[in-house]
Amino acid sequence: MTTLVVLSVVDILLLIAGLAFYLYVVGTQLMRIAANLEECAEIVHRIEANAQPILGGLEHINRTGGVVAGALPLLYGMAEGIVAGATYQPSTTARPPAAPASGRRRSRLHDTVGYEPVGG
User: Fold this and answer.
1) Are 110 and 117 in contact (CB under 8 A)?
2) Mean pLDDT computed over 45-67
3) Where is the composition biased (Low complexity) (predicted)?
4) Is the model's pTM score more than 0.70?
5) Those residues with Cβ within 8 angstroms of residue 116's Cβ, 6 or more apart along the chain or in another chain
6) Does some domain include residue 36?
7) pLDDT at residue 119 greater than cutoff 70
8) Separation CA 23–CA 16 (nearest Å)
9) Three-class SS string for 9-78?
10) Rounded distance between C-alpha atoms, residue 36 and residue 30, angstroms
């Protein structure tokens, strides 16, 4: 019976040691995450401070964007009219077949070298 008690105590000590190691690992990871989050919060505050001067101009940009968005249907209609007027419309009448060139085609390469064909 003493062996069983000793093994139980050793088992409980190993369990407590394992849990302590686990808590140590989780604690160090949480500390690292907290440090990263603190650094991110500082960066966000700097971005917010840099963005403050932009807010006044942003309202103007949004107002101008609204005017442009309101004019888009009119501009689209005008563009459609321009495209419709400038689109090429091929002729629908049937063309006659192409006629061959009149006479025999003569090369000018002979003239460049001084050759004169007989009867030419």
Assistant:
1) yes
2) 86
3) 90-102
4) no
5) 110
6) yes
7) no
8) 10
9) HHHHHHHHHHHHHHHHHHHHHHHHHHHHHHHHHHHHHHHHHHHCCHHHHHHHHHHHHHHHHHHHHHHHHH
10) 10
Q: Can you give the pLDDT at residue 42?
A: 95
Model confidence at 101: pLDDT above 80: no
Residue 115 lies inside a defined structural domain of this protein: no
More confident residue, 71 or 16: 16
Together in a domain, 29 and 63:
no
- For residue 89, the SS3 value is coil
102 pLDDT above the threshold of 70: no
Select, from the ranges 45-49, 95-99, 100-104, the one with the highest average predicted confidence (pLDDT).
45-49
pLDDT at 75: 84
At 78, list the tokens.
Answer: 């005008």
Query: Structure tokens of 108?
Result: 């000018």
Domain enclosing residue 67, as ranges = 55-85
Residues 12 and 47 in one domain: yes
Provide the number of structural domains found in the chain: 2
Q: With respect to residue 106, please indicate whether it lies within any of the assigned structural domains.
A: no
